[in-house]
Specification:
Layout lengths: L1 E5 L13 H8 L4 E5 L13 E2 L9 E2 L1 H15 L4 E11 L2 H7 L4 E6 L7 H7 L2 E4 L9 H12 L10 H4 L19 E2 L2 E2 L9 H26 L2
Parallel strand pairs: 1-2, 1-6, 5-6, 5-7
Antiparallel strand pairs: 3-4, 8-9
Helix pairs in contact: 2-4
InterPro entries: Alpha/beta_knot_MTases (IPR029028), tRNA_m1G_MeTrfase_C_sf (IPR023148), tRNA_m1G_MeTrfase_TrmD (IPR002649), tRNA_m1G_MTases_N (IPR029026), tRNA_MeTrfase_TRMD/TRM10 (IPR016009)
Keywords: Cytoplasm, Methyltransferase, S-adenosyl-L-methionine, Transferase, tRNA processing
Pfam families: tRNA_m1G_MT
């Protein structure tokens, strides 16, 4: 898998390949990650990538031309257009089902906005779809891109030492949440582990885990319903 990221501050994303599952996957060459900055595709000595919005208003907008040249440079370098995603609060909210769809795409190009966003003409002509990580606003798209990279890479074959780890994650089965997990010691501060986990009966353990997943999911949905009223 190839992941190209267009960002003004790639240093925000870089640490994701320095530790943990994503780092190990990168070391095993399960995916390639490269950063591209629009400042490299400007003509003026200040490497200007933004300008004030037409019609007035606060902030700055990332300009069309440097972004278009960056997309063209990626396509020329890769000999592939890739699937182009703009990290945006206006986009579809990332869910596990979407991550599973993205992991099947061999070449992703993530565009990270800054300031008030990017010129709409880039979205209209170069972007395949917009993606959000939640209904809130960040200073830029770099953190959102890091979330997407982590979410997708951990689903790559051989990225995790135990493939069952992500198969049992929350949302791996629709919107079902994960079951509780316990480890040593068996009892501490008056808190004990459910006896069923020591029964040795795998069918009973799986049934208990399933029941707990359903209970957690129902509890979350009930809380959401209450908060929405």
């Amino acid at each position: 898998m190839i992941i190209d990221v267009i960002a003004l501050i790639p240093e925000i994303i870089q640490p994701i390949i320095e530790d943990g599952i994503v780092s190990r996957a990168h070391q095993k060459s399960l995916f390639e990650l490269r950063f591209w900055t629009p400042r490299d595709y400007t003509e003026d000595r200040h490497h200007t990538v933004d300008a004030r919005p037409f019609g007035g208003g606060p902030g700055m907008v990332m300009m069309y031309e440097p972004l278009k040249k960056t997309f063209d440079a990626i396509a020329d370098y890769r000999q592939s257009r890739g699937v182009r995603i703009y990290m945006s609060p206006q986009g579809e909210v990332l869910k596990q089902s979407k991550a599973r769809a993205l992991v099947a795409i061999p070449h992703l190009v993530l565009l990270c906005g800054r300031y008030e966003g990017v010129d709409q003409r880039i979205i209209d002509t170069e972007i395949d779809f917009e993606l959000s990580i939640g209904d809130y606003v960040l200073s830029g798209g770099e953190l959102a891109a890091a979330v997407v990279i982590d979410t997708v890479v951990r689903l790559l074959p051989d990225a995790m030492s135990n493939e069952a780890s992500h198969q049992n994650d929350s949302f791996s089965e629709g919107d079902l949440l994960d079951h509780p997990h316990y480890t040593r010691p068996r009892e501490i501060n008056g808190l004990s582990v459910p006896d069923v986990l020591f029964s040795g009966d795998h069918a009973k353990i799986e049934a208990w885990r399933r029941e707990e997943s359903l209970r957690r999911t129902a509890l979350r949905h009930n809380k959401a319903d209450i908060n929405n009223h």
